[in-house]
Amino acid sequence: MKRIRDWWNRLREYRLWLAVLLLVDALLGLLLWLLDAKSFWSLCGIFSLSSMGLFIILACYIYRRDQRREKKILGFIESPDEFHEAEALEASFPRERKEIEMIGSRMRALEQEIKELKAQLEGQEEYVEAWAHEIKTPLSLMTFMLDNRRDEIPQGIYLRLQHARNQMQEYVNQMLYYERLKAVHKDYIFEKICLSDCCEEMLEEYGNLLLESGFVTVCRISEQCKNVEDMDDQVVSDRKGLQFILGQVISNAVKYRKDTGERTLILELSDEVRELGNDIDRKKGESPEYTILCIRDNGKGVKPHELPFIFDKGFAGDIGVGRKNATGMGLYLVKMMAEDLNIQVEARAEWGVGFEMRLYFPKICKY
Prior knowledge:
Structural class: alpha+beta
Order of helices and strands: HHHHHHHEHHEEHEHEHEE
Oligomer: single chain
Largest sheet: 5 strands, mixed
Strand order of the largest sheet: 2-4-5-7-6
Radius of gyration: 36 Å
């Protein structure tokens, strides 16, 4: 079937020459009829068969020639070196050769530029990774000094230094996870994780930062998630990736806290059957169950027209004086990491009231 379509396409390409050939045959037949009408009918069959045979021979020749030409040109496009260019020039029409030479020269130049850019990018990635690992040494030393000299440092200064150390560590983690997300092979380890324990660990890790910022933290677990036998608060995920997501959301809550009044951070774990589910669930006609982790604060929130773009790379929004220090990478990395871990992310916010991040974990099937 494919070969028949190819033949038909070839005939359509040369339909003008076919029409000319038929017209010439018709004129010759007319002249033969005028010269000798009696002989015309006896020679008509031989004349028609000869014309048809000539047409078939020409069609086969053109078809095979075009096939060889296309094969060599495709080889030239895939590998635009001088050898394949010479083959393409040999198989192409004279009017095309100049263009092929120009294309080959340009493609080789672009290929060389790509190689150079790739080498530069690899060198930059190696430098960034080396820097991120080297910076951990002074950070570890700073942590060691703060822990061992805590009694000698005033409480206010200690909390500020701890805050600065946490910020440095967060920026280093962002850089490392950005590189990790771009990697071809990723070292995720999927295991059963108790969400309530994971939340407690992250609140403890960010405890000093939350304390210094005046936050009151609340960790709530719904009644259905307290059923240890069913293990409804357990999800399958990568622990390091999940901790990174939680850390970024908690850090954002601190960064964009309100200036006055009580500051609260609520982590709430619950179950839910979503009415719509994602696109795959809708195709199946199912409403899947999810374990949901909701992280809610009463900070500055997000303006309505900015909410659809908060997960875009580099988007910082209009956050007032904090904009100059914002990278716009935190929530972008959260979204990318969540997609890798098959976690659905949803953000809800109201300007001046607060921000809410909801993480939807597919339920563990029990057989």
